Amino acid sequence: YLEFVRSSETTGVDGKPMLNRYSTHLTREHDFPGAQAMLFGAGVPDRQTMQTAPHVGIASVWWEGNPCNMHLYDLGREVKKAVTSRGMLAWQYNTIGVSDAITMGNQGMRFSLQTREIIADSVETVTCAQAHDANITIPGCDKNMPGCIMGMARHNRPSLMIYGGTIDKGYSKTLRKPVNVATCYEAFGAYQYNTLRQPDDGGDTSKTKDDIMDDLEKHACPGAGACGGMYTANTMATAIETMGLSLPGSSSTPATSPAKMRECAKAADAIKVCLEKEITPKQLLTKKSFENALVITMALGGSTNAVLHFLAMAVTAGVELTLDDFQRVSNKIPFIADLAPSGKYLMADLYEIGGVPSVQKLLIAAGLLDGSIPTVTGKTLAENVASWPSLPSDQVMIRSLSDPIKKSGHIQILKGSFAPSGAVAKITGKEGLKFTGKARCFDKEVQLNEALNRGEIPRGENLVLIVRYEGPKGGPGMPEQLKASAAIMGAGLTNIALVTDGRYSGASHGFIVGHVCPEAAVGGPIALVKDGDEVTIDAETNSISVDVSVDEMEKRKAAWTPPRMVVTRGALAKYAALVSDASHGAVTDLF
Ligand code: FES
After folding, report:
1. Where are the alpha helices (DSSP H) in 353-444?
2. Cβ–Cβ < 8 Å for 553, 284
3. CA gap 165, 346 in Å, rounded
4. Structure confidence by residue, pLDDT tens digits, 316-374
5. How far is the CA of 513 from the centre of ligand 1 (A)?
6. Ligand 1 pocket member 233 (CB < 6 A)
7. Active site residues
8. Is the CB of 131 under 6 A from ligand 1?
9. How distant is the alpha carbon of residue 349 from its chain centre?
């Protein structure tokens, strides 16, 4: 039905190639006088412009109250200025979004993943309903990026994405080191276990743990931009740039850099190229470009959330991508980046040594990235980065491919009696490759957080802490968990593995397994495990198993009753009713 509204004519009323093949239905002759009156009323300067200029929708995920998003309206204004100055009509609009960090750990987090669907719905709806000829999206926080790409894939009109950009580094005077939002969560673990102190380096040691927390909270986020490590937002922006859907450098250019403003102007040129060459999102969202996304995610140690979002983007674009693809790519791609959360550098540091294009250049030269894929510039990825500087020889952030941190990727797809349809683990190797421990089960994350607050998780015996009924349907909304993993890392509890049918924040690290499928709410094995069962996670055999016989599991299944849905009306109820499982991206339009 989307093709139906695209004009089959290729020459405009001015005799030039027609770039307004969607809006022309509204603007030619006087078939829709009400629409034309509205467009004049909204600011179209004259009939010639209305009938020949392409209408470009500019969708920013702007709202106040979140550093990742607070500047996106201003970026949208810059884009509008540039689009208008190049003879196109620019229509700015907005979608909703929520902050992953602000909602983290409270019930608000249940709304986070479903905002990806609302953003996709919004971009699709405005583009199609308003007959826009092209679309520029400007996302900032985690779910924004996949949401925008899914919306672009659905309407499939010439499009590109401008990433809002990464935040600058904060600095803590009490801890005397650079800090970011994840530092606050980890410090909270030490705060709970009374081990939060100033460094014993000859400087001030008089600050209390409350002074230190106060200092951290005030200085971790020094202005606009998305969380600074290789967390979900930066992971998704990096992957999308490597798929060719944003301009070179978009993912590593900091939000407050003048270069981000220049990117807004360049986007106007690029969208014109996309219109002229009829480059559409589905031409860019291909198996090859998803392969590139997986490669850069493994090489840079990106967030496990990328698995869910890539699956969702692929489902939307009609590309065959499965969990097995992730394992295949993970097996062959070395993990080379000393970036947070497992490493010490931030995206703003990577920008200083050349940014993501310099890493792409390295990986293309090694034959690991496909440089021949088309991009929104009208050139290939390899052509885009050809003039970009190579990584400096004296930098230490990105290791050489022959001396990686780990020879294979950090994302492991696990299957087994605990997760027959798959689970996603983030294992950098620092924590070991195999873990066996006694299960301790928590129905909902809040129960685990309360146990941690009470200091009830002991050191010593190996424990597998299981948080269940937090999947896409059961959460509902597959809420992200960071508080527990950060508190456990901060408290130095090395005897713990975490397993959930929910998700982990991109800032999480440690021995963690999420996205367990089938989820507890539909009676998956994770619902049937009991305290004391032995659970083994093995990244070498890619398995996660529970040491309980098949007969016993069947008995437990027969005695299991589905939980009562606590949310029965509103956005989350709609989401829970529609959502697919995590191994299919947790999308809401896969019937
Ligand atoms: Fe937006 Fe972290 S809260 S990227």
Report:
1. 356-365, 381-385
2. no
3. 12
4. 999 999 999 999 999 999 999 999 988 999 999 999 999 999 999 999 999 999 999 99
5. 21
6. yes
7. 505
8. no
9. 20
- 566 by Cβ neighbours in 10 Å (0-12 / 13-18 / 19+) ranks as exposed
Whether the upstream peptide bond of residue 518 has omega within 30° of 0, thus cis, is yes
The response to whether residue 340 sits with its C-beta less than 6 Å from ligand 1 reads: no
Question: What are the structure tokens assigned to 246, written together?
Answer: 């944003």
Three-state DSSP state, 413 = strand
Atom of ligand 1 nearest to the CA of 226: 4
The label of the residue with tokens 């479903």 reads 114
Q: Which two three-digit tokens encode residue 320?
A: 């065959």
Ligand 1 centre distance from Cα of residue 239 (Å): 16
CB-ligand 1 contact for 104 (6 Å cutoff): no
Tokens of 104: 């983290």
Residues in the chain: 591
**Which of ligand 1's atoms lies nearest the C-alpha of 101?**
3
HEC-encoded secondary structure of 85-137: HCCCEEEEEECCCCCHHHHCCCHHHHHHHHHHHHHHHHHHHHHHHCCCCEEEE
Rg for the chain (alpha carbons), in Å?
Answer: 24
Ligand 1 atom with least separation from CA of 505 = 2
Q: Exposed e or buried b for every residue in 363-381, given b needs 16+ CB within 10 A?
A: bbeeebbbbebbbbbbebb
Query: Cα separation of 94 and 201, whole Å?
Result: 49
> In which residue are the tokens 């467009």 written?
39
Q: Is the shortest distance between the CB of 100 and ligand 1 below 6 Å?
A: yes
Q: How confident is the model at residue 488 (pLDDT cuts 50, 70, 90)?
A: confident
C-alpha–C-alpha distance, residues 474 and 63, integer Å:
29
Give the count of beta carbons closer than 10 Å to the beta carbon of residue 458: 10
- Pocket-testing residue among 64, 71, 142, 347, ligand 1, by greatest number of atoms within 8 A of Cβ: 142
Q: Is 481 within 8 Å of 570 (Cβ atoms)? A: no
**0.90 surpassed by complex ipTM:** yes
Number of H-type helices and E-type strands within the chain: 23, 16
Question: Do 36 and 25 contact (CB within 8 A), yes or no?
Answer: no
